[in-house]
Amino acid sequence: MSLAAYACDPARTRGRRHWEPSAPTRTEYQRDRDRIVHSTAFRRLVYKTQVFLNHEGDLFRTRLTHSIEVAQLARSIARPLGLNEDLVEAIALAHDLGHTPFGHAGQDALNECMQGQGGFEHNLQSLRVVDALEERYPAFDGLNLCFETREGVLKHCSRANAEKLEQAEPGGVARRFIDRTQPSLEAQLCNLADEIAYNAHDIDDGVRSGLITLEQVRVVPLFDRYCGEALAEYPQLQGRRLLYEGIRRMLSAMVYDVIDCTRAALQTAQPASAEAARHGPPLVAFSAAMREASGALKKFLFRDLYRHPRVVETTSQAQQVVRELFERYLEAPAEMQAGFAARGDTPRAVADYIAGMTDRYALREHERLTGRRLLAA
């Protein structure tokens, strides 16, 4: 299909940090997607926590399955809006490459360890992965992705870190955090698809885990509405089929809401190009009613699932693993793999090393270094 005037055109990309000839059969954004899929960091996502630790069950979401779901939702929204599907897929598949083991628990612990060293932001770490930490090519570090893909990967960034990035790359991917402009519409879309995906799949995983019940989730008006619709059509529906049908209908409603709301915003703003879209307000969004309903669902999940005593218990142990690994590697850098041990900026090298670990590798390393076994399968 043809791209809208406000979509990112791969023929007009701002390019790569290191020049390369074009591929004969793929656009620049297709090429980025392929590089991401073949990266080491992408494969590691299969053993990185989303909400439930990897050993707690084979069917819970991981960072990998989450990223695939985000990509699917983003492409479903991009096509009717005339946005670049290949770019949204590349951004979606790369957006969590820098996430630590043990999900947000690991990130928070690593951020505490790095206070005084610039902290730790997983979005910034994802950019570090694609810009520097992947080692696949003879002529450069990282994956050498296009500007537009890298911009989408850097979803959030503190002012201090944005200024550091701007010094190293004037006018680069961090500039918008200083100028207060917007990323591409494709990047805006991936941000929202990320939220839609985790709201939906965390309901599924929460009920599957037994930590919350279908009846509890039906207290949330957004979810209850679509369960009610399913029961009106299929009165005998119950259990997992009712759960899945409620989630499916809710997902569809959220997707169509984004499409309709964004179309209206684009019609009003009339951006003549992808660059023009960067200099206005955010254009990819929920309607006010859906934003409020989605917010209520997020509050429920935070209170009843993410702060459930069992999740809090594993979170505490996971943070202990990360903190103790950091301390041991800082004391004895030679315990890390040679490439990390040889780096001069030891705290950042330690953070890079730990952030790249899967859950189970972090647990094995912790047991090797401390003699204690935490969060055992």
The helix content, as a percent range, equals 55-70%
Range of strand content: under 5%
Query: What order do the SSEs take from the amino end to the carboxyl end, as H and E?
Result: HHHHHHHHHHHHHHHHHHH
Low-confidence parts: none
Q: Radius of gyration from the CA trace?
A: 21 Å
Architecture (CATH level 2) name of the largest domain = Orthogonal Bundle
Number of helices: 19
Mean pLDDT: 93
How is the biggest beta sheet arranged?
none
Number of domains: 2
Number of strands: 0
Characterization of this structure:
The model has no long low-confidence stretch (mean pLDDT 93). This protein folds into two domains: 286 residues, Hypothetical protein af1432; 56 residues, no CATH class. It has 19 helices and no strands. The longest helix is centred in the last third of the chain and has 31 residues. Helices cover 62% and strands 0% of the residues. With 377 residues, it is mainly alpha-helical. The protein starts with 27 loop residues before the first helix and ends in a 7-residue tail after the last helix.
Features:
dGTPase activity, mainly alpha, 377 residues, globular, single chain, Hypothetical protein af1432
Strand-helix topology:
Blueprint: H1 28-37, H2 40-44, H3 63-81, H4 85-94, H5 103-113, H6 122-133, H7 147-153, H8 159-168, H9 175-179, H10 185-209, H11 214-217, H12 221-233, H13 239-269, H14 274-278, H15 288-306, H16 309-331, H17 338-341, H18 346-355, H19 359-370
Domain HD: 63-199
Keywords: Hydrolase
Family: Belongs to the dGTPase family. Type 2 subfamily.
